[in-house]
Structure formats: C-alpha cells, structure tokens
Amino acid sequence: MKQLFSFTLAMALIGLFSFTIDKGTGYKIGDTATDFSLLNVDGKMKSLADYKDVKGYIVTFTCNHCPYAVMYEDRLIDLHNRYAPKGYPVIAINPNDPEAQPADSYVAMQERAKEKGFTFDYLFDDGQKIYPQYGATKTPHVFLLDADRVVKYIGAIDDSARDAEAVEVKYLEDAIAALEMGKNPDPAETKAIGCSIKTVK
Amino acid sequence: MMRYIIFLSLLVVSLTLSAQQYDDIKVYKTFDEFKQVFEHKDDKIHVVNFWATWCGPCVKELPYFEELHQKYKDAGVEVLLVSIDWDKHVEKKVIPFLHKNEYTAPTIVFDDPKTNDWIPKVDPDWSGAIPITIFYKGNQRIFKEQAFHSLGELEEIINTLK
Fold first, then answer.
1. What is the ipTM of this complex?
2. Chain B partners of A159 at a C-beta cutoff of 8 Å?
3. Architecture per CATH, B22-161
4. Whole-prediction pTM value?
C-alpha cells in the first residue's frame, strides 16, 4: 500500500514536473512570485519586502526605448499615484540588457525617471535574473501580486495602448477591484502588443 | 523656364512611379478581414511575418525574409510581411521604410487596436511581443515567437514543411 502511494506520488510529481517544462518557465495565476533585490533609480537596492503594509504589488516590466512602454508612462504614474495610497504600489522593472539596447541602461533609466517625474520605483534587472522567473516576455508586461506575492493577474494595463482616451476596459484596475472584494480577477490574463525583451545572444 | 517645367514634370513622374510600387499596401482594420491570410488551402508554403518599423529585432531580420521571397517566390513559397504599425503611420513610416530598403516581398498593414481579442486567435502561445512568424502549408503549422538571424534559419523551417 505504502509502495503504491509512493509510486502514485512519484508519478504525480513527474507529471507536475513535465507539465512545468512543457509550459515553459514563468508564473501562472496562483503561483507565488519571488522577491528580489534590484537597484532602483535612486541608487538604493529595493525589495518587495521593503514595501510595508501593502495589499498587493503592481510589478510592471517596462523600459525606456519601447514605444508601447512609453505610451504607458503617464498611465503608470497615474496608477501609482492613485493606487499606492490604497496599498498597491507600482514597481517598474527594466528587464533589458543595455548591451543589446543602450537606451535601456541604468543611467538612461535614471534620466528618464527624472525627465518624466516617475513617482514609482524603477528598478534595473541587472544580469536579467528576475524577468525569466516571472515569465515576462515583453515590455510593458504587468504582474499583479497580492500581499502574499501570489500572482493574481498577468497582462496588459488596459485595452488601448495607443490612446488613453479610447480605453474601454481597464484590465488592471478591474483586477485590483476584484482583489479588494476578495475575488479572483476575470480576466486573469490578457494579451497586448509589446517589445520583446532584449538579450545578447 | 521650359527646362524648369520639364524638370518638374520628370520629378512628378518619378515620384509617382516610385510611390506606385507601394500603392497597393492594404490596411486591414479588423481581424475578421485579416484572418484570410492564414486560410490559404493551396499547395504553397505560407510565411507570415509580423513586424513594425518601431521594432528593432523585426527590422533586423526583414532582409532574410526578403531573401526568402526572392529565392523561393517561384518555388511555392509565399512570404507575407504584416506590419502592425498604426494606419496613420503607413504613409510617413511604413512606405518610406520599404522604399528605402527596396523590399519587394508582399506587405500589408494590420491595425486593430483590440489586441486582447485577436492575439490569441493568431496563436494561443503568442505573448504579444514581436517579431513572430507563422509558417503553414495545408494543415501543417509552425509558430515562432523569435527573431531569425539568417536565411538558412528560415530555410530550415521551410524544409520541414516540404
């Protein structure tokens, strides 16, 4: 009996493992996201654990150079200004390798943050260790985590990248509203056009 | 004066001629209109590449798609370049870009802002980053969310469909 149990457990684990491989890396809804320690544009290291008394985290992979990322800069500032006081700060992370895209260097990040007046932290994924764990594939790419760092929503900020005036569905804000009501966001995942993450290969 | 007029007329004619090559760039505004590019039931291998003028890796790989088009256009391979630039950028960005690079591969523009509706219909595995390329022949279909670095890499995939 015990053997049968071990066997079943082993098969289940193998099944789970191969599933993970098949689906590639990166978080699915319900996974617990990793914390990190990344350099912020203010020169200090920042971790999710540094944000006290929060109800969630709006982890947003974004960058300087991508036009689709730029289109969302003002909306990210607005989101942070409205939602950080409610316990949902925006934490922006640049996942690009500056060797592949010089416009996304740490110094360029500092300049852009100053120029645009970013009110949120803008961190540099130096060495590109964090974005693959999250499974970010593009900029911008949002991961909404709850207070326990459980991934609740993955995807776009809203349904109209190019024109903030033409937005019909605010996916991210709807997802936060769902969390506030103790519900799971629906949709929990959305797709939008973005720039591939730049790596040196 | 006469010389001036002749010069002007020549200029106009040459501008018209150079523009004409791209006059037939069609802009599709909805996925329903656009989706027929994935529905050819002929014997050809169809190579549908999504790109944009603002996308660095896309622009870098386009020469290989142009080469592919040149080399195999009479050998059963149909290359289609799908620019997802906005329609208002077609005249100012897309056409001058194609012109400058002397690309001859068939090109269309697909500009439907409701990306969450159509990205999964192009391919459920597509994250939304570009470039992507879909290779298909009949019911065989290969989806690649990556950039290509040579004509050889494209030929390798083409050969698996023959």
1. 0.83
2. 113-116
3. 3-Layer(aba) Sandwich (3.40)
4. 0.86
